[in-house]
Amino acid sequence: MREHPLKAILSRIMRGGSDPSEFQLAYVHRGAADDQVIIKVSEIARLGKGSFLLRDGETQIPFHRVLYVIGPENRLLWRKRIREKGRTDLHELL
What we know:
The chain has 94 residues and is an alpha+beta fold. Helices cover 16% and strands 32% of the residues.
């Protein structure tokens, strides 16, 4: 099974030569302003198979909640695919 594309991007940011504090990530958080929270990638302590753990050691965010990742100069690196209304993806049928 292939690695999740988001995990691959976050892994490169965290282990590469870039400064992770220059990258931001937004994820769905019900009750927050606009139902989303924006963090710096440097706040991520560990990547898992389908989620990541924040440095507080308690907060685990599943990859399916991540909306986008942006880099320096607000360059979009990854964005969650939005399904069209009424359209069903193949994996929903399995």
